[in-house]
From TrEMBL:
PANTHER family the record matches: TYPE I INOSITOL POLYPHOSPHATE 5-PHOSPHATASE 8 (PTHR45666:SF15), TYPE IV INOSITOL POLYPHOSPHATE 5-PHOSPHATASE 9 (PTHR45666)
Annotated keywords: Hydrolase
Gene3D superfamilies the UniProt entry points to: Endonuclease/exonuclease/phosphatase
GO molecular function: inositol-polyphosphate 5-phosphatase activity; phosphatidylinositol-3,4,5-trisphosphate 5-phosphatase activity; phosphatidylinositol-4,5-bisphosphate 5-phosphatase activity
Gene Ontology biological process terms from the UniProt entry: phosphatidylinositol dephosphorylation
Family matches, as SMART domains: IPPc
Region Disordered: start-end pairs: 77-103, 121-144
Pfam hit, one: Exo_endo_phos2
The Inositol polyphosphate-related phosphatase domain, residue ranges: 3-401
Family membership: Belongs to the inositol polyphosphate 5-phosphatase family.
Protein name: Os05g0114100 protein
Length: 434
């Protein structure tokens, strides 16, 4: 059995500065003697979803900033300047003239993309498209300079895989001792935004094998927005299309032993699956008086009866066979900037941003045997209009696999960690609302 931390956060298109403290989100409520072995962290809107970012070249500057913040939070004993991310890396901190901050996707922009969209839509299941397209799949595709640096940044936690598609970003961090047990890393992206294919909405999925015997898949998504009646149908459709269109390139290594675990090609072929992200499901009848009354009373359990995701799941229209833990925290969206006040509760002028009824947009679901959810909670960072959500899982590996790696992992899981560098550096329980 090993421990896996899963977190999701819509950061509202806001790039972090180096002073942002995310350690309480990642490390709280974990005893120092038994920290998580694997971290799966998904983000949405790491860049503003304007025309420049959706239609133009991918802006990786914020991605590298988040990676550095995560590395320093998970490895506090190695966070001094000499070990931080290279200072001369070209962060993109301001919008260029070609990438205006408040630009909108116009009809002419869409027409200009017609040929590109046609090429993407004609991709068949056997193709291996370029990862610059929103529909892509690749094997062990984390080779840029930032990822190579973070993979080799010493002990503690190391970056095993990462992928960005416009504003969606997914990364997997693993204890350095566990890295030899992680194999068959593959990535697949599905765009579900403009015209059903652009990457402003959609999914990033990472597939991997642990100990040569257990296949795992992590699916980070940003689904269709909107809180009017019927918008949940579009979100259901996004889920169906992501499950249908996600394809992982099968491994074709002649040297692989005959008894090796077959590489899954689809999401549902994996042994254990985590689905995380801004699923954007809202509350049914969000404008009704009884909904507002429940909000005023902070009656979250009664309000959850109106949660679209649970309504749709109970009706068998989406996520059949998936599990979600008990939600005992307030809605995670939408807050005023740098505030604990819901946007719906604030008095807006007619020219202000749209009101949004609070909802549990940010969720973590799972599928597969041998997984027990130990915690399901939200964080209280005011960095964006969403609150981050996290979950801690206890995961049982399948029997079998490479004997040497199995023995190595068994020793790792049994090893007391209280005297280790992470424990000495203070990784563990903190007093916080996370």
């Amino acid at each position: 059995i090993y421990r896996m931390f899963v977190g999701t956060w819509n950061v509202g298109g806001r790039a972090p500065d180096q002073g942002l403290d995310i350690s309480s989100w990642l490390l709280d409520q974990q005893p120092a003697s038994s920290p998580a072995h694997i971290y799966v962290l998904g983000f949405q809107e790491i860049v503003p979803l304007n025309a420049g970012n959706v239609l133009g070249a991918e802006d990786k500057g914020p991605t590298y900033k988040w990676l550095d913040l995560i590395r320093r939070a998970l490895n506090p004993s190695s966070s001094e300047r000499s070990h931080s991310f290279p200072s001369n890396y070209p962060y993109a901190t301001e919008a260029s003239p070609e990438r205006p901050k408040n630009d909108r996707v116009s009809f002419s922009d869409l027409l200009a993309m017609e040929d590109r969209l046609s090429m993407v839509s004609e991709l068949d299941d056997d193709s291996e498209p370029s990862t610059s397209n929103p529909e892509s799949s690749s094997e062990e595709e984390t080779t840029d300079v930032a990822t190579r640096y973070l993979r080799s940044a010493g002990q503690g936690y190391r970056l095993a895989a990462s992928k960005q598609m416009v504003g969606i970003f997914l990364c997997v961090w693993v204890l350095a001792d566990l890295m030899p047990c992680i194999t068959s890393l593959r990535v697949s992206c599905v765009g579900r935004g403009i015209m059903g294919y652009m990457g402003n909405k959609g999914s990033i999925s990472i597939s991997l094998t642990v100990q040569g015997s257990t296949t795992m898949c992590f699916v980070c998504t940003h689904l269709a927005s909107g809180e009017k009646d019927g918008d949940e149908v579009r979100r259901n459709s996004d889920v169906v299309e992501i499950l249908k269109r996600t394809r992982f390139t099968r491994r074709r290594r002649l040297s692989a032993p005959a008894a090796a675990v077959p590489s899954p090609e689809t999401i549902l072929e994996h042994d254990k699956i985590i689905w995380l992200g801004d699923l954007n499901y809202r509350l049914t009848g969000s404008g009704s008086g009884d909904t507002q009354e429940l909000l005023d009373k902070n009656d979250w359990q009664a309000l959850l009866q109106k949660d679209q995701l649970r309504v749709e799941q109970r009706a068998g229209r989406v996520f059949g066979g998936w599990e979600e833990g008990q939600i005992s925290f307030p809605p995670t969206y939408k807050y005023l900037a740098d505030s604990d006040t819901y946007a719906a509760a604030a008095a807006f002028t007619s020219s202000a941003s749209k009101k949004r009824t609070p909802a549990w947009c940010d969720r973590i679901l799972w599928r597969g045997s041998g997984m027990e959810q130990v915690r399901y909670a939200r964080g209280e960072s005011r960095f964006s209009d969403h609150r981050p959500v996290n979950s801690l899982f206890s995961v049982q590996l399948a029997a079998g696999g490479n004997n040497a790696k199995s023995d190595h992992l068994h020793l790792l899981l049994l090893r007391p960690r209280a005297a280790g560098p992470e424990a000495a550096a203070g990784i563990g329980l903190r007093s916080s609302r996370f």
